[in-house]
Amino acid sequence: MSPHIFLILFGLTIVRLCCSFPLEDEQPATQPKHHQNWRRQEMMDNNGLYWLEWWVTAKKIHFRITVNTQGFVGLGFSRKTGHMAGADMVLLWVDDRTGEPNALDCYGSFSHPHLAPMRDDTQNYQVISGSQNGTHTEVEISRQIETCDPYDMPINGDTIKVLWSFGDTDPIHGNLKGHGRNRGVKPLHLLSPLFEKSAAILQPTTGKRETHKWDISMQNVTIESSMDTLYWCKIVRAPVLNSKQHIVGYEALLTRFGKSHQPLVHHMTLFECSTKSYPGADSSSWDVWSKSTGTECNSNLLTPRDWDSCATPVAVWSIGSTGQFLPPHVGIPMGGQSGAKYYMLEVHYDNPNGLHAVDHSGFRIHYTHHLRPNDAGIMISGVSVSDTQLIPPGQKLYRNVGICGPSCSNVMFPSDGIKIISGTLHSHRAGRKMSLRHVRAGKELERIIEDENFDYNYQQVRQLANETVVLPGDYIITDCAYETTNRKRPTFGGYSTKQEMCLSFITYYPKIDLAGCYSMTPVREFVETFGVMQFYSLSMTDVENLFLYNGNLLDYIPNTIYAKTKKSRANMTAEDILYEESLLNQLLISDPVEFHDRTFLSHLNQLPWSEPLFTKRVEHAMINGKHMTFCRISNESITIPSEIIRYPNFTTFVKPPSTCPYHLFIDNAPLISSAPQLVDDLTLWVYLQVIVVCLLGAP
Ligand SMILES: *[C@@H]1O[C@H](CO)[C@@H](O)[C@H](O)[C@H]1NC(C)=O
Ligand SMILES: *[C@@H]1O[C@H](CO)[C@@H](O)[C@H](O)[C@H]1NC(C)=O
Ligand SMILES: *[C@@H]1O[C@H](CO)[C@@H](O)[C@H](O)[C@H]1NC(C)=O
Ligand SMILES: *[C@@H]1O[C@H](CO)[C@@H](O)[C@H](O)[C@H]1NC(C)=O
Ligand SMILES: *[C@@H]1O[C@H](CO)[C@@H](O)[C@H](O)[C@H]1NC(C)=O
Ligand SMILES: *[C@@H]1O[C@H](CO)[C@@H](O)[C@H](O)[C@H]1NC(C)=O
């Protein structure tokens, strides 16, 4: 194909996809893209009765709500609880007699949650149009993204809990009974575009579906009721593809269990295995592995060492996500001469309720032979999963940071940089705020992703409205803040959802040989921060190796001079078992004498964590101190050694100040509870009250 034809085809690509992304200026493939004029649509309930469509223009956000009712429709926004109390709400209906559409701006009182919420003084929602027919009501409204009304929530990039509701009759008829089913709450990123599957799987030039599906799933993985956490890994053989293809997107295939119909999968990743890097390596063993149902990941005894080469992610899914579909100018390569022959599926099962289950979850990969202009890749950044990530107990917000710095970006990034398309921020139950920060030449640039309202249950991929260019020499920093007010002991980095992670999964182009770029507090620094100089039987170098290579203590000290686990597991909680079995609980302190014969873990448990000055000092020391960086390369002919660096000095990015004379949204009131955000009966009661009061105040 001549380059000209290719360009024309690419031009058509953009035109044909205009349903989700209207015409963009055609740009050379190397220019980062701006995705203006996107539109999104979500089904809010499970039955297709309530659809929300929205888009952004200049300073306004527009909503089109289409609901299977001739009665009233409610839409609300809440930052924290997902409850009506404190929420910004709008009540919509089309008058049965006049056919006039109506919108009434309301809010739920936070300071008096038992009093009925109120009609706003200022009406900030404008009705653009509205109508109803025999079955549906459809209303289009708009409002300023920031109305400057303290009773309206400013819409921003954070996770927003969107409340929805509807009833059978118009409010003016007085009968406001809704059905229990007809309300709910859904977290959404209202300001992020999202590339739709429907557009991604169509061949743009023909409008036909010319993608193929490749399903990769676990086979009969048994999760015992005693397993709180299980990481299962399975090798799969790639489909035989003689020419290179592009992955255009992927979605999760989930096995669901129990009454709540929830998957046990918390997060899963498909990795490419670089088997080709072992010339003469016995490919027959990969074949044997690919026929097995898999094994526990990271198990020194069970997992073959070769599986370590399965390190470059090609698909990542976390709880609450719908997968990812890529914009028309990029695709993740697979197949052909240089394509990976084997992949590894890693699934993290989270089983807090102790179910016994047999699981078949995995990915559906959509790929095409219509190659797109750029090869995209996925890399992992953040804090390396390790016991040296620590969050003290009793903290309202405590930060950890993971750094990807020049030691990696200078060597690996092309001179005009990589362009980030999307990212997923990943932490566990204590995660409250997360951001992906970007530092160049001593100055922080705009946050690549920022969520001040991180929802552990909604780890949806975030497509960037503007692709971000990261140049050689830049730093990217994953910044995580955790809340542990109800915890009594420190939380450490680890694989269980009761432990923590601080990671970003970044989709970018052009693809480079990079699987991950992350950091951790160096072991020696970590130990010394807490005043410990020496352990029994092990040099500090041994201890470092233990941490870094996921080592087995018995390889180092084949005798019994380490703390043994004594308690019976039967009567222990999952947290207790994690603690008992922690590496930190097996290191016995020999120096200094005052901590003598304590395990390092019991020493950490005894520190004065309730002293804010102490925890602030630790937090500051860990962030601003030393970081050991890792540049995980997926091409074995390149190695970049780990490096110990200091946190970079930079001036923090400051958002332009709000143009509002004052800034007070009522939902910023203190968080009452971080319990699961399901709308309960009290909320329904409150909701009915809202309507009544709104009406009393109505003209
Ligand atoms: C009623 O309106 C809905 C939503 O606008 C539309 O999908 C449906 O086809 C309409 N029904 C009829 C009978 O026109
Ligand atoms: C999974 O288990 C079912 C029921 O025991 C069995 O019929 C099926 O063959 C198993 N599948 C695989 C791939 O092992
Ligand atoms: C994206 O870039 C355009 C053009 O530079 C700018 O006008 C717009 O505000 C940016 N959007 C976001 C969300 O940063
Ligand atoms: C251990 O089990 C006993 C009896 O089942 C129970 O009363 C006790 O509270 C348990 N102890 C702990 C620490 O869970
Ligand atoms: C690995 O890197 C080397 C050196 O940059 C390069 O020549 C080679 O093509 C790379 N291999 C693959 C499979 O990309
Ligand atoms: C940051 O600045 C301090 C004081 O100016 C200096 O000691 C430190 O080395 C700097 N750190 C880096 C990473 O440049």
TrEMBL record:
One of its GO terms (molecular function) is copper ion binding. One of its GO terms (biological process) is octopamine biosynthetic process. CDD domains: DOMON_DOH. PROSITE patterns: CU2_MONOOXYGENASE_1 (PS00084), DOMON (PS50836). This is MOXD1 homolog 1. The keyword Oxidoreductase applies. The gene is LOC115631027. Pfam families: Cu2_monoox_C (PF03712), Cu2_monooxygen (PF01082), DOMON (PF03351). Belongs to the copper type II ascorbate-dependent monooxygenase family. Its cofactor is Cu(2+). Residues 1-20 form the signal peptide. Keywords: Copper, Disulfide bond, Glycoprotein, Metal-binding, Monooxygenase, Oxidoreductase, Signal. SUPFAM superfamilies: PHM/PNGase F. It comes from Drosophila lebanonensis (Fruit fly). Residues 48-167 form the DOMON domain. GO terms for cellular component: extracellular space; secretory granule membrane. The keyword Disulfide bond applies.
